[in-house]
Amino acid sequence: MRSIGRLQIFCDYYYLRSVLSYNWVKRECEKALQLNKRIISCRYKTIKIERTKEISNEITTILQIEFENKSELANKVIAEIEKIKEKEKLGISSSKDAKEFFNRGNLFYNLNKFEEAEKEYREAIKINPDYADAHNNLGALLQNLKRYEEAEKEYREAIRINPNYAGAYNNLGALLTNLKRYEEAENEYREVIKINPNDADAHNNLGILLQNLNRYEEAENEYREVIKINPDYADAHYNLGILLKRHLQRNFN
Fold first, then answer.
1. Is residue 223 within 8 Å of 207, Cβ to Cβ?
2. Which H or E run includes 64?
3. How far is CA 149 from CA 117, 120, 153, 155, 156, in A?
4. Which has the minimum average pLDDT: 16-25, 31-40, 208-217, 244-253?
5. Which of 20, 103, 129, 163 is the most buried (most CB within 10 A)?
């Protein structure tokens, strides 16, 4: 079994340990991008973290590979290397592999190098126009740059390609909420819940939207559903607390 450190000699990839440091992540990403080798893609999970002096203000979430231990991660990386070898046997070079550009786009995005990230995502889409994840991530990038019309187009394209893409519906719902297109946003969040009734984020987002529309009873139901799904969902507890406090104040007045 090759160790994680030794594997870095053979491939471009990065992983985040349990101790999260923005500067460490940035160094690892830049190292991966400088290497003239292929990028390893692993399965990621988005986790919320506490803000610290080491984390830039723009970052509210960090991607952490979802593995129990280093050996499991090493096995995954080795398996990815084998997949790359198979691609090379078939004559699929990195310059023709949409996933390569998608992975590079993600790295640039995590470094806040948005112009470079956009180029990589668009190259991935050029190679594979039906790459739903690339359209979704490009949409998130464009939304971050306040290019809302373009972002909406990308989210809708991701959904067209994959009608069960809950993440794209959720992102589109958030965008439409920001644009004060509340009825449309509600439809998107409900579509997520239809796809996955246990999507806590969608229930929470819908609750916030309903609360802002003064539909308090419905909002309360959504927050309680979040807590039922995930009792440790802090935002839902906070949102529900604020809602109930305001309800008491209204009744008192």
1. yes
2. strand 61-65
3. 18, 20, 6, 10, 11
4. 16-25
5. 103
Taken in order 107, 42, 89, 99, the sign of the CA dihedral is: negative
Report pLDDT for 208. Answer: 95
Half-sphere exposure of 138 (CA within 13 A, CB side): 27
Class (C level, CATH) for 94-181: mainly alpha
pTM reported for the whole predicted model: 0.68
Cα 153 from chain centre: 18
CATH code of 197-253, in short, is 1.25.40.10
Residue 219 has pLDDT above 70, yes or no: yes
Domain limits, the chain: 1-92, 94-181, 197-253
Per the CB < 8 A criterion, the answer to whether 103 and 39 are in contact is yes
